[in-house]
Amino acid sequence: MARRAELIAIGRKLFAHTSYDALSMDDIARQAHVAKGLIYYYFQSKRGYYLAIIQDSVADLVTYAASGLELPPVDRVHRTIDSYLRYAEHNQAAYRTIVSGGVGFDAEVHAIRDGVREAIVATLAEGAYGRSDIAPLARMGLLAWVCSVEGAAVDWIDRPELSRDVMCELLVRTLGGSMRAIEEMDPTYPAPEPARREA
């Protein structure tokens, strides 16, 4: 399994700024300094290799976002958003693939994207409300914010006119707005104090 992990690490670097279609299996094998057959042995196909790379990258993002339970909620939100933006910034091609769903309708890429969304919603809910099993209205409010972040992050990596710190702060404040809207519609989900103070 160490060899498989090594190939995934190499693939993460190769696909970080290069689209799936731009790299052939010959290119990948040459740049990884391995026989093409070794990639087929572990991943069956170029697509299998690419999906494994995306899943591995996303697992790191989700694990990091869900950690830091000892931090105050507002610090944890900053950390989650900052790690999300760092991922988008350093894995641009993979990030675009995840949020756009791949070429056409790709059920496996959609499933990865949906898993990331749900993990981030759960992390936000845990930090804001102390639990991840929240009512449909609260979940939809947080999910709508996550989806807006995806679009904003794609635009930001294409046109990085704002620093990551400014972008992070902007997204934290818009999250506060979403949480205040949730509270107005369902008072059983009060916005955390920092979000309320930013009103």
Round the Cα radius of gyration to an integer and report it.
19 Å
How would you describe the shape? elongated
Count of discrete domains:
1
For the biggest sheet, the summary is:
none
Distance between the termini: 51 Å
Q: Determine the CATH topology.
A: Tetracycline Repressor, domain 2
Write the H/E string, N to C. Answer: HHHHHHHHHH
CATH class: Mainly Alpha
Q: How many DSSP-defined strands?
A: 0
Which second-level CATH architecture applies? Orthogonal Bundle
What would you say about this model in short?
By secondary structure, the protein is an all-alpha fold.
What does this entry look like structurally?
The structure is a single chain. With 199 residues, the protein is mainly α. It has one domain: Tetracycline Repressor, domain 2 (Orthogonal Bundle), CATH 1.10.357. Helices cover 76% and strands 0% of the residues. The chain is built from ten helices and no strands. It has helices at residues 2-15, 25-32, 36-43, 46-66, 73-90, 92-100, 107-129, 136-158, 164-185, 193-197. The radius of gyration is 19 Å and the shape is elongated. The relative contact order is 0.10. The mean pLDDT is 85.
Comma- or semicolon-separated keywords:
mainly alpha, 76% helix, 199 residues, Tetracycline Repressor, domain 2
SSE inventory with pairings:
Elements: H1 2-15, H2 25-32, H3 36-43, H4 46-66, H5 73-90, H6 92-100, H7 107-129, H8 136-158, H9 164-185, H10 193-197
Helix pairs in contact: 1-4, 3-4, 4-5, 4-7, 5-6, 5-7, 5-9, 6-7, 6-8, 7-8, 8-9
